Amino acid sequence: MRKGLxxxxxxxxxxxxxxxxxxxxxxxxxxxxxxxxxxxxxxxATDHIWFNLTKGFKSLRLKPGERVFFDARVxxxxxxxxxxxxxxDRPISVDYKLSHPTKIGRVSDYPSVQESHRRAKLVQGxxxx
Length: 129
Known about the structure:
With 129 residues, the protein is α+β, with helices and mostly antiparallel strands. It has a single domain (3-82, 89-128), classed as CATH 2.40.50. Helices cover 20% and strands 48% of the residues. It contains three helices and five strands, in the order H-E-E-E-H-E-E-H. The chain has a five-stranded antiparallel beta sheet. The protein is globular, with a radius of gyration of 16 Å.
């Protein structure tokens, strides 16, 4: 479970993440994987998240490894096996996702986002020592 996201359920917040790779759902629908997703203050939010490849992501022509920032809403969803096969042990449970990403940008294009993220990491490091 994404416990970092559970705490802020329903809120619209700012995040940063690293482009992992592109994928597809079939039928001309494409997706984008973000890894190492963090709140804007540098606190980890989730190790990965898949989004539909929206116009906001597509227009930036992002490459794997690039850092992006975006706003998104935290929402619960149910996951697990819903079929009828006997012996499949993946019970239905609630997890949290990010939805409706907006204000998407490349971190390297906005020094203020880059600097605030760097400062947050430094402060976090001092607290962890």
